[in-house]
């Protein structure tokens, strides 16, 4: 049996996306997943490539759902989510939630003025707040301002990000204080994320979710 996902990051991204979809949709699963990805702001290059594969023929996709029903696909994704909860320490679990939980949105306005308002859902907010607390002991910035800097590190759409000047207006201080602190915070979160992904690699390979490193799919 081929591995379902190309790598751990893809497994995490797809699992969070799939589990955010309502179960047993009338729409074919593949179509529902395409629509969910199309609604996601600012896909990465890898995610854009996979979306194009989904729009093409199933045989071209780097995610192998061949022969699986929609319930079985959700089962594979549930295994990924369960591993996040059971295999990762709390800070790593939080960084995965903050990175891979899809942004939510609502349609606002009317007629030709309709547009989407993007926002972080409860799971992503919980992860961000945990990470802010985790970083607080080594940061000169604390409280809601630190929450906002952490959220900014995971913003994948300009409508989700807040400028440093806006932060200064909201929380006080000079905007350059936030600008100087941000790169260090972002780097620490990237390092933590890399550790979490590495920790899951061997487990996902053993479970057949990804192809082990050095083995051709």
Quick recap of the structure?
By secondary structure, this protein is mainly alpha-helical. Helix content is 59%, strand content 5%.
- Name the shape in a single word: globular
Counting helices, strands and paired strands, the structural category is mainly alpha
Strand arrangement, largest sheet? 1-2
Order of helices and strands: HHHHHEEHHHH
What is the mean pLDDT?
81
Strand-residue proportion: under 5%
Unreliable spans are none
Radius of gyration in whole Å, from Cα?
19 Å
The total tally of domains equals: 1
Distance between the termini: 10 Å
The beta-strand count equals 2
Characterize the largest beta sheet: strand count, sense, and whether it forms a barrel: 2 strands, antiparallel
Helix content: 55-70%
Count of helices?
A: 9
Question: Which terms summarize this structure?
Answer:
mainly alpha, 217 residues, 59% helix, globular, two-stranded antiparallel ribbon
Protein architecture, described:
- With about 220 residues, this protein is mostly helical.
- The protein has one domain.
- The chain is about 60% helix and about 5% strand.
- It contains nine helices and two strands, in the order H-H-H-H-H-E-E-H-H-H-H.
- A two-stranded antiparallel ribbon has the order 1-2.
- The longest helix is centred in the C-terminal third of the chain and has 32 residues.
- The termini are close together.
């Amino acid at each position: 049996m081929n591995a379902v996902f190309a790598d751990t990051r893809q497994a995490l991204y797809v699992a969070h996306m799939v589990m955010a979809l309502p179960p047993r949709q009338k729409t074919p699963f593949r179509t529902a997943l395409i629509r969910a990805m199309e609604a996601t702001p600012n896909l990465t290059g890898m995610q854009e490539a996979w979306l194009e594969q989904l729009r093409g023929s199933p045989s071209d996709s780097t995610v192998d759902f061949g022969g699986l029903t929609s319930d079985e696909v959700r089962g594979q994704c549930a295994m990924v989510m369960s591993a996040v909860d059971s295999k990762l320490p709390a800070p790593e679990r939080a960084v995965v939630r903050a990175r891979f939980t899809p942004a939510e949105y609502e349609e606002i306005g009317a007629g030709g003025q309709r547009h989407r308002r993007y926002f972080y859902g409860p799971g992503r907010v919980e992860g961000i707040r945990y990470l802010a607390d985790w970083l607080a002991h080594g940061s000169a910035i604390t409280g809601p301002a630190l929450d906002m800097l952490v959220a900014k590190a995971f913003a994948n759409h300009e409508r989700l990000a807040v400028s440093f000047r806006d932060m200064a207006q909201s929380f006080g201080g000079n905007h350059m204080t936030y600008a100087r602190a941000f790169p260090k915070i972002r780097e620490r979160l990237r390092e933590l994320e890399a550790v979490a992904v590495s920790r899951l690699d061997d487990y996902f390979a053993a479970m057949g979710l990804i192809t082990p490193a050095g083995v051709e799919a």
